[in-house]
């Protein structure tokens, strides 16, 4: 399916990199900031904060570009993605790969300002980010790979801030992993009908009629793991109050997806930005 639009090329590049849709960047940013604040005991290096914030934007955009490249032959068959630049013909495959390379180089230049451990971790992080878009062809668990990619900034943040990888960070990693699978399953519920027609795999398809229950279990596991992480890092009361706020938002999301209506499932997915923000505020306040 190839069409054309009237938007200028710079806007097509913005759409390719999802600069016009920052939700994915925010969902990657919040756990990165959780880790930086905890690793820095409430006083992270502001240089590192800048490096990781810019890096989140560039790597999330790189992930979107390679995702669109991987899906260039199927996006035209999905209602939500028919307007993507590689589908409409506004940008070529070569232009997309060039954009991906540029964003990866920018990200790597940023990580070079940190330390050896962070640089080594970044190589693995790039691998996870590049692998995820292709997994929906081979497994019903692409959300697992997205979760690993979106959680990889957590050990990188600890490595950059403290040059160490304390065991507690892996509780934070696991919590973000289960949270990512939960919210991206809600996202996949939006496209489930289209995905079934074209043979794309997802946890929404795998979970089937049990999707809402399993999302709820994943949300509960996220909270349990965050409590364990809070105990590991001796976080105070504000952190646990923030988890109550996150729990309330999870209940709200369950109500939104109750009838599996597309727009409400997408709204529930978007609501996870508030979850990440509430937890970050709790971490900041408890470490003041």
Q: Beta-sheet strand percentage? A: under 5%
CATH homology superfamily of the largest domain: UbiA prenyltransferase
Please state the average pLDDT score. Answer: 93
The count of DSSP E runs of length 2 or more, i.e. the number of strands, is 0
Query: What characterizes the major β-sheet?
Result: none
As for the CATH topology of the largest domain, it is Tetracycline Repressor, domain 2
Instruction: Assign the CATH architecture of the largest domain.
Output: Orthogonal Bundle
Give the terminus-to-terminus CA distance. Answer: 54 Å
Structure description:
With 288 residues, this protein is an all-alpha fold. The protein folds into two domains: 7-137 and 148-163, UbiA prenyltransferase (Tetracycline Repressor, domain 2), CATH 1.10.357; 166-287, Four Helix Bundle (Hemerythrin (Met), subunit A) (Up-down Bundle), CATH 1.20.120. Helices cover 75% and strands 0% of the residues. The chain contains 14 helices and no strands. It has helices at 9-16, 23-39, 46-70, 85-88, 93-111, 116-135, 142-151, 153-162, 168-198, 203-207, 211-232, 237-256, 262-270, 272-286. α6 (116-135) runs antiparallel to α8 (153-162) and α9 (168-198) packs antiparallel against α11. The termini are far apart.
């Amino acid at each position: 399916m190839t069409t054309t639009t009237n938007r200028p090329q710079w806007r097509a590049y913005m759409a390719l990199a999802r600069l016009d849709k920052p939700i994915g960047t925010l969902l990657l940013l919040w756990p990165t900031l959780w880790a930086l604040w905890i690793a820095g005991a409430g006083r992270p290096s502001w240089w590192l904060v800048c490096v990781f914030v810019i890096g989140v934007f560039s790597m999330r955009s790189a992930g979107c570009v390679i995702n669109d490249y991987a899906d260039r032959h199927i996006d035209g068959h999905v209602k939500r993605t028919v307007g993507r630049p590689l589908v409409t013909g506004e940008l070529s495959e070569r232009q997309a790969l060039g954009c991906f390379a540029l964003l990866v180089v920018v990200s790597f230049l940023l990580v070079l300002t940190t330390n050896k451990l962070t640089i080594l971790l970044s190589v693995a992080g790039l691998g996870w980010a590049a692998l995820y878009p292709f997994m929906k062809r081979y497994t019903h668990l692409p959300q697992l790979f997205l979760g690993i990619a979106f959680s990889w900034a957590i050990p990188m943040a600890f490595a950059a801030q403290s040059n160490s990888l304390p065991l507690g960070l892996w509780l934070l990693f696991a919590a973000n992993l289960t949270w990512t699978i939960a919210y991206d399953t809600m996202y996949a519920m939006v496209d489930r009908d289209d995905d079934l027609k074209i043979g794309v795999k997802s946890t929404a398809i795998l979970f089937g009629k049990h999707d809402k229950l399993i999302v709820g279990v994943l949300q509960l596991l996220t909270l349990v793991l965050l409590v364990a992480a809070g105990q590991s890092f001796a976080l105070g009361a504000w952190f646990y109050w923030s988890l109550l706020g996150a729990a309330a938002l999870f209940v709200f999301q369950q109500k939104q997806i109750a009838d599996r209506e597309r727009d409400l499932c997408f709204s529930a997915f978007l609501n996870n930005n508030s979850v990440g923000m509430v937890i970050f505020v709790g971490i900041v306040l408890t470490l003041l």
